[in-house]
Amino acid sequence: MTSTAAFLLANRPSVAARYGLKVLACELARHRGLRPTVTYATHRTGSTAVHRAIRGSSRAAVKAHALASAHLSPRRRDRFRGLRAEDGVPIGFHVGDWVVRRAIVEPRCAADFVVLLREPVAVAASLFAGGREWWAPGLAASLDEPRMLDDEAVHLAADSLESRVPSTLIRDWLRHDLAPTLGLDLLEVTFDRDRGFAAIERGPWRIALLRSDLSDERKQQELSTFLRRVVPRPATMNATAQAAPWVRRAMQLARRALASRPALVDRLLDEPFVEHLWSPAEVASLRRAWRGTGGTIAPSEAMMTAT
Fold it and tell me: Which residues, in sequence order, are bridge partners of residue 72?
């Protein structure tokens, strides 16, 4: 039995239907001489708003979080279990992952990829705030209590960020998902830090690299130019502001926990890819902001639970 068959048989008929419709949309686009567009980004990078904007300009639009086979689960029930591969990347379930893997990557069919890139501390904080599966035992019990932001809770949250949350997710995803899937070493790409954008080609694929902290207007401009059609302005939502009270408290807790562990903030921001994508002044500002000593975080980076 092929892995695709196992994926289809392991889930409800509605999942198979979604898979089939997305594959059909890609095939129809190719028959019309068009290129499917893939929004490809790991979790908590603000990719949903970009995908929705792209989908507003083309029906052949798919979103994928992971494309390496080691990171794909065929079972929907694995979606929120906190499973991780040996390389540190979470193992998840997403129909779009299977569509892109089977219909575009493996047959090496022509397509346009839009890759969203977010700074690693924001990704770590967002993972913590949006996923209780990463929390230390005992922390969830304090969700509805005034103790949520006391010193003990901050300590537990900081320990969670250090040892349970996949805080190096964006780095690990770049190394172990994006690089082997698209044959792309980010550090070898000439990236325009002033624009927050780069466009390259790899075989049958055109690839745009887009920083998530750009304004919605800038994203619209870069996407429209790259895709050679008018793309609606991405409507980035402040998911934290609209989230349940416990999620908002969890984000406050994540900020306090990170400020209490400056070494963790430094370790994440000292990754080579951060220097490659952000200017020294921008990195210094992010460092001060997460350490709680001043600095600023771009508006889209404050939308901590964005998917």
Answer: 92
